[in-house]
Design goal:
Structural class: alpha+beta
Shape: globular
Distance between the termini: 34 Å
Order of helices and strands: HEHHEEEEEEHHE
Strand content: 25-35%
Length: about 200
């Protein structure tokens, strides 16, 4: 279980990831000012998927299975639900980066969480699985953040590159989870083409 002695979020406004970022204007109108970097990344995970593919991948997100499959250490009170505390751990040993957060909202598509004290950045991030009219299943990650720890501020323009690489790694893990499920239900079941 994560150590959550300080439950105060480290940024404002809170809860904006519940809205879709789109071009960033939606969030700007909701109070996310220019001191935050906005990230909106979308990766196709399944081409021509089914509603079952969509639901299974959304469950992978909410249960932390996706993050764990991508090699992220997860210390959580439980599946993603409002109020659940989670610490994401990237790396190992003394150089591991720990990111404590609290889940703010969760729904059938995913969840959003906000940073707590000790996180390298202050802000909020949402992980969603969506399905479009063609049946394609997408992993969508949207965030607004600004570096707060000294090393994160010094990393400057590398932070957004690292965030995009992190999301690409999550998308690869989502495709691998989907492929394993598709093999389990046999060929010809539909929705088996990775994005």
């Amino acid at each position: 279980m994560p150590d959550t002695t300080d439950d105060a979020l480290t940024y404002a406004p809170v809860g904006v990831t519940r809205l879709r970022a789109r071009d960033g204007d939606t969030w700007r109108h909701a109070g996310v000012d220019a001191t935050f970097r906005v990230l909106a990344v979308r990766h196709r995970v399944v081409r021509g998927g089914t509603e079952a593919d969509h639901a299974a991948l959304a469950d992978d997100v909410r249960s932390w299975r996706l993050h764990r499959s991508a090699g992220v250490g997860i210390e959580a009170d439980g599946p993603a639900a409002p109020g659940v505390h989670v610490v994401s751990v990237l790396g190992a040993g003394p150089v591991a980066v720990r990111g404590p957060c609290r889940v703010l909202w969760a729904d059938a598509e995913g969840f959003g969480y906000g940073s707590l004290a000790g996180h390298p950045v202050a802000g909020e991030e949402a992980f969603r699985v969506t399905r479009d009219a063609a049946g394609d299943v997408w992993l969508e990650v949207e965030a607004y953040s600004r570096p707060v720890l000294v090393w994160a501020r010094l990393a400057g323009p590398l932070v957004p590159l690292a965030q995009r690489a992190y999301v690409a790694n999550l998308a690869r893990a989502a495709r691998a989870l989907h492929r394993r499920r598709a093999r389990g239900r046999g060929a010809g079941a539909g929705g088996t083409m990775p994005g």
